[in-house]
Amino acid sequence: MPKESFDKITVQSVGLLCAAASLALGVVYLLAAGAPLRYVVINVAAFVVGLCAVIAARCFKRSVHRFSGLFTAVASAALLATAVFGVTVEGVTRWVAAGPVLIQPSLVLLPALVVGFVRRRDLVTTSAVLVAALSMGVQPDRAMAGAMFAALAALACFRRDKFVYVALAGAATAFIAALVQPDPLPAAERVERVLFTAFTLHPALGFGVVSGSALLVVPAFFGMLGPHREAYAVFGTTWGAIILAAVVGNYPTPVVGYSGAAVLGYVLSLAALPGAASVRAGTQSGPASGNPDNDDGSDVGVRLLGENLPA
Predict the structure, then answer these.
(1) 8-state DSSP, 185
(2) Crossing angle, helix 68-85 and helix 105-119, to 10 degrees?
(3) Which of 13, 146, 300, 309 sits 20 to 30 Å CA-CA off 181?
(4) Cross-strand bridge partners of residue 280
(5) How far is CA 234 from CA 48, 84, 135, 143, 193, in A?
(6) DSSP at 182
(7) Which helix (H) or strand (E) holds 209?
(8) Bridge-partner residues for 92, per DSSP?
(9) Model confidence over 143-178: pLDDT tens digits?
(10) What is the average pLDDT across 213-233?
(11) Residue of 166 and 71 predicted with greater confidence
(12) Widest CA span of the chain, in angstroms?
């Protein structure tokens, strides 16, 4: 199968189908759990917004690539602003208020930022990753700091350059900082501990949400068979770590639970996965050249890190 066809099928077909199936299983759980209808509407709306962003990015892929560094910088600045000026609950500052709804920007922005770092590694994007890591340590957010560290550790297994090592050191420091700080927040109903509470309602619901969570990492396994293994490894590690955090702690269960931020963040991180063209670490764009170890094999990684609708 041609590389271009493989990537297109993996990202657009498998990834979006997995996201849609996981979302549907989550809708069944939310309705069975007696969640307000607005929870379902917000999750579905977040998926639609993410899908529109993917389509728009493909239509204007050259412009998106040209300004990818700017989008990355803006995303990291938004995460830092959240840590400094965001809504604080029990000493934890992870949210911004949109009317009566609290939004967690890290779930929207961080996965796409980290996946995009695979494609473009230079001073700007490395600085953005460090700012994002600082934000996770300050908030503190153990789940997202851990996901960031795990993803960059996975990338370091494939790409051994100074940008990766600097970013990994920053992520490790932020994760340690988050771990040593207290995180006293109780579990939010229908948002966190979903993989456990669903079984108390019905075994079938429990199986459904577990299956929906597993679907989120399926695109990574397909991608690991293709030419851009490092990007798919980072993608799968990021969401695998977020799911693991939801199992071991009081953190949002992505897509199957009420969290439009996670729904939108997942679709945008799918969009940030590479396509057919190639760039080298530390370059802006264009075909790969030189040492093949520096060839990221990427196309139009989406950096459309727009506003999140949900809580």
Answers:
(1) P
(2) 150
(3) 309
(4) 295
(5) 24, 28, 20, 16, 25
(6) -
(7) helix 203-215
(8) 89
(9) 999 999 999 999 999 998 999 999 999 999 999 999
(10) 91
(11) 166
(12) 58
Cis peptide, bond prior to residue 140, ω within 30 of zero: yes
Measured CA to CA, the distance from residue 209 to residue 207 in angstroms comes to 6
Q: What is the pTM of this model?
A: 0.86
Nearest alpha-carbon partner for 226 in 293, 268, 294, 273: 273
C-beta of residue 275 within 8 angstroms of C-beta of residue 7? yes
Count of CB atoms situated within 10 Å of the CB of 162: 11
Please say whether the beta carbons of 75 and 303 come within 8 A.
yes
Q: How far is CA 261 from the centre of its chain?
A: 10
Distance CA 111, CA 109 (A): 6
**What distances in angstroms separate CA 137 from CA 4, 80, 132, 183, 188, one per listed residue?**
38, 10, 9, 12, 22
Between CA 275 and CA 285 the distance in angstroms is 13
3-state secondary structure 60-83: CHHHHHHCHHHHHHHHHHHHHHHH
**Closest by CA position to 298, among listed 155, 147, 157:** 155
DSSP 234: H
Phi/psi for 192 (5° steps) reads -120, 160
CA distances from 106 to 130, 176, 246, 275, 308 (A): 14, 18, 15, 25, 10
230 touches 155 (CB < 8 A): yes
Distance CA 251, CA 244 (A): 9
CA angle 136, 142, 144 (to 5 degrees): 60
Which residues partner with 277 through β-bridges?
Answer: none
